[in-house]
Amino acid sequence: MSGGIASYKSCILARRLTEAGARVDVILTQGAAEFVRPLTFEALTGRPVLTSLWEPGTALSHIRLAQAAGLIVVAPATANVLARVAAGLGDDLLTTILLARTIPALLAPAMNDVMYANEATQANLSTLKARGFAFVGPETGALAEGPSDQPGRMSEPETILAHAERLLRRGGKLSGRRVIVTAGPTREPIDPVRVVTNRSSGKMGYRLAEAAWARGAEVVLISGPSGLSEPVGVDMRQIESTAELEACIRSELPSADVLIMAAAPADFRPRDPSGNKRPRVEGALAIPMEPTTDILASTAALRRPGSVTVGFALETGDALVKGRAKLERKSLDLIVVNDALDPGAGFETDTNRVAILDREGGSRILPLASKRSVAEAILDEVEARLG
Description:
- The protein is an alpha/beta fold.
- The protein folds into 2 domains: about 5-170, Rossmann fold, CATH 3.40.50.1950; about 180-270 and about 290-385, Rossmann fold.
- Helices cover about 35% and strands about 20% of the residues.
- The protein is built from 14 helices and 19 strands.
- A hairpin with a 4-residue loop joins β17 (about 355-360) and β18 (about 365).
């Protein structure tokens, strides 16, 4: 950490990294220690905090930390520390570590927006990028001195954490691949007010998009209506109807290495949606329905040779039998099957219990787990099929 008011966010970041299983060594510059005391980070990480090159017993700490760790994250990275690192200075513990590093480094700039826009700062950023430093942010938003619509604000801890994970997991089979993930429900209009939809929350698809991006993929997330936050790093496409979902997939699929169809598109839509709100009437209301397009079937010819296609089957009763039939009928590589009546699985939950069936006749039964854990298992199966 270097010294800036955004240091308070670094407390959260250190804790999140520790909770995720990382062993976190915190290095504070003299300025950083004026904002947050070392004791705070020792309590958050359970490890000693380093603040100086001259502490007894730490003579070679800068070499060990610069070469044996998995990743260096500088958050906040102030204009001052960016300038010193770009100049190649090693005048304190932090800059010495960065000068001696043989591992990736992620910098999270944080400063006044005018300082960030200054040509000297921009030149330093260009120099550091050319030397292989990775960056996250800065973003627009409130600064210590007031609101701003220009970049300068340090990224939020969860955003930095996502970028750190992506750097730590670099080099896998999904790295650099183009992955399309669909998520959430579709809505088919009855009239301008009412719709036909389903209970899909989009959580499974969003977790898949997060996990694929963390593995280094270029991710397009096509999402129906959802209240979920946009995952870090993904290219979002918002759709409403099944027809819009199909059109979006047709546009994206020819360049995709992987399609994961986790959305729950409506199977039927009103045949003649009204242009005006239907008035309430006494008695039963009959709405003629017609089938929507079978998207996996209608877009099969657009799949790239060697690509991997994953379908989902949410069933009630004989789920594995129905899932196997769907896999074969739609020429899928994998299908993820679960039972809508299984407690803790299916729609609107943070957990899922699924079976992953493959085209060779194999199956992998997963226990009840978080949807992010399920996403990782699905992506393991996808990577096993990529050349």
